[in-house]
Amino acid sequence: MIKKRKIPLRICIGCQEKKPKKELIRVVRTAEAKAALDMTGKKPGRGAYICPLQSCLKKAIKGKRLEKNLQLPVSEELVTELTEMLEKENGVEGS
């Protein structure tokens, strides 16, 4: 009998829904106390997961959930980088 693999679930900090880890984007707090994107999902450090949707990113920023989860202030550069990445991924031009 074939064993079923367990799919790791994580909670999106924007919409608060449980989703498979591979569907989410990980933002990690590095050892240098900076927030950075983790596209591999394997960087060491405290992580927060967010859906690849603009609405989830806006909710996470508005509620300061990203800052609370990472336990450090999030730079405007990271927010801009996340926004640009989501626009490219979703094929949306402008805001």
Could you list some keywords that capture this structure?
two-stranded antiparallel sheet, alpha+beta, Hypothetical Cytosolic Protein, Chain: A, globular
Written account of the structure:
By secondary structure, this protein is an alpha+beta fold. The chain has a single domain (9-90), classed as YlxR-like (Hypothetical Cytosolic Protein, Chain: A). Helices cover 32% and strands 21% of the residues. The chain has helices at 54-62, 65-70, 76-90, and strands spanning 9-11, 18-20, 25-29, 35-38, 46-50. The longest helix has 15 residues, at 76-90. The relative contact order is 0.19. The model has no long low-confidence stretch (mean pLDDT 90).
Please tell me the overall pLDDT.
90
| Content of β-strand | 15-25%
- CATH homologous superfamily heading: YlxR-like
**Oligomeric category:** single chain
CATH architecture: 2-Layer Sandwich
Rg from C-alpha positions?
A: 14 Å
Number of strands: 5
Share in helix: 25-40%
Q: Please tell me the total number of domains.
A: 1
Strand order of the largest sheet: 4-3-5
Cα separation of the termini: 50 Å
- For the record, the CATH class is Alpha Beta
Low-confidence segments, given as residue ranges, are: none
The tally of helices reads 3
Biggest β-sheet strands, sense, barrel:
3 strands, antiparallel
Question: Based on CA inertia axes, which overall geometry fits?
Answer: globular
Within the CATH hierarchy, at the fold level, what is the topology?
Hypothetical Cytosolic Protein, Chain: A
- H/E series: EEEEEHHH
